[in-house]
Amino acid sequence: MPTLALTNFNILVGFLGGWISLFGLVSFLCKETFYLSEALISLLAGVAFSPHAANLIRPLEYAGTQANVEAVTLAFSRLVLGVQLVLAGVQLPSKYLRVQWRPMTLLVGLVMTCMWLSTSLLVWAMVPSFPFLYALAVGSCVTPTDPVLSNVIVKGRFADHNIPKDLQDLIISESGANDGLGYPFLFLALYLIKHVGAHGEQGSAAGAGTAIGLWFGETWGYTIILSVIYGAATGLLAKVLLKWAEDRKYVDRESFLVFAISLALFIVGTCGMIGSDDVLACFIAGNAFTWDDWFRLETEDDSFQPTIDMLLNVTIFMWYGAVIPWHEFVHNNVIPIYRLIPLGILVLMLRRLPFVFAIHRWIPQIEQAKQAIFVGFFGPIGVSAVFYLYVTLEFIDGLAEGPNPAADLDQFKETVRVVVWFLAVCSIVVHGLSIPLGKLGYYAPRTLTRNLSIMSGDEGDPNQRAVRVRGRVVFPLSRAGNRAARKQRTGDAESQAQTQSDDEYIRMGPRLRGSVIPEPPKAADQFGNKPVDQNQGPLASMPELPNRSIRFLDDTTPPDKQGD
């Protein structure tokens, strides 16, 4: 006898497929007409079907424990970032990182450092009784700009119409590079917390020296430099192998298109095994893979990679909507909601915008002040922030299990989880709605003014609508309008003298580029009656146009025989 199998797998897969299908039916309308990001829409869908609402997506039940939920979220974020950053590197023009090293150095060096310090200061000021070293760790999580949310302003109709191509490339390159370069900012704070202490209780020159030594050796040497070398070598080797196979017709089109995706999976897995920076390695590998522009040009018109990109984005933001600790935003022991909301506003306003605006004169791609404001505002916080959040939580758990753990580690852990998740939600919502709201604010006053003018009668009479013909203002449907225009142009006396000619001008029919198109003369009917005004009015003096015929190139009929 048939029975219902309402297992978690069936419910999850069925809901995921149904949502992607329903979103696909209106995806063009949402993204290209209303400029809504798929990240925001998927996040709201995840919230609607999360345990806090419809309870159709139950992450805790799938994973078993909260620790397993955090591990799954971290692994999922790594996967999405790896694929996204390989594709971001592939999109860049040939040798982009070498050609544009000056603006990239300003953005990922100076600007990123200022973003880290400003965000840390805001967190330190808004969270009560919070040590500054803890605030540095929290600020480092939200310092990188997110490549997933940056797609809102570098892809689609809005980007094609409003963002220059060289500026799009700069935004893609910055968001890819600074994701991997978030490690030095994070682990400088974490090593100091471990070896010096948040309150200096373990403070000594030896402890600070140990922390700085680990920061240079492990973070910069093993994590950053090794990942750059590994990513560049892997990307170049993959390009050579794929070119060799393509020249000999060993690879089919499907495997050729999926090669960049498989390269991302390989780097994420192997870098994860050796403990290096897989995020930065994926971006470097993608740029090295298309160093000579060969693969980018071969796949430029293909839609397979954007399809995979869309599937990953929709899925991960639905998952985020289900695992975000919404209740902790209001009920927590570290920061009240009346401080949390101003913190989100201040971070979005002061984290990036002032510093990009200050140095935009030294970045050739940012030519105008409004472009600097735009680039400074769009520094979204998303998947990369969640990734660094769970890296920080893993480090805190390691400190708690070690000897002499600090008494306020629980406060540190709760603060970083609440603040980072809240800032990520603020960024997803604000940056996801800023373009449609900006378009609405631009067009709404004009539309409202025009409608009010029509309702008040200013444009309600179609007879008062003027056109300009040969420099003259003409009212095609109104003789009174023509008289008024003539009066305004030449005075009352001449206006009276030209009234009759204006009336005849109106009766002469429509004009096409200044030439009169008269109605054909009416012939006498079968009783011999001629039209009343056939020989009267302004058309009487017009010459009769000769009959002309159209002769085609292959027509051999003599000219005198044409028309017979």
From TrEMBL:
Q: Which GO terms describe its molecular function?
A: sodium:proton antiporter activity
Gene Ontology terms describing biological process: proton export across plasma membrane; regulation of membrane potential; sodium ion export across plasma membrane
What is stated as this protein's family in its record?
Answer: Belongs to the fungal Na(+)/H(+) exchanger family.
Q: Which superkingdom is the protein from? A: Eukaryota
Segments carrying the region annotation (Disordered) are 480-564
Outline the extent of the Cation/H+ exchanger transmembrane domain: 26-436
Keywords (A to Z) from UniProt: Antiport, Ion transport, Membrane, Sodium, Sodium transport, Transmembrane, Transmembrane helix, Transport
Question: Which species is listed as the source?
Answer: Emericellopsis atlantica
* Major subcellular location class: membrane
Q: Where in the cell is it found?
A: Membrane
Q: What protein name is recorded for this chain? A: Sodium/hydrogen exchanger family protein
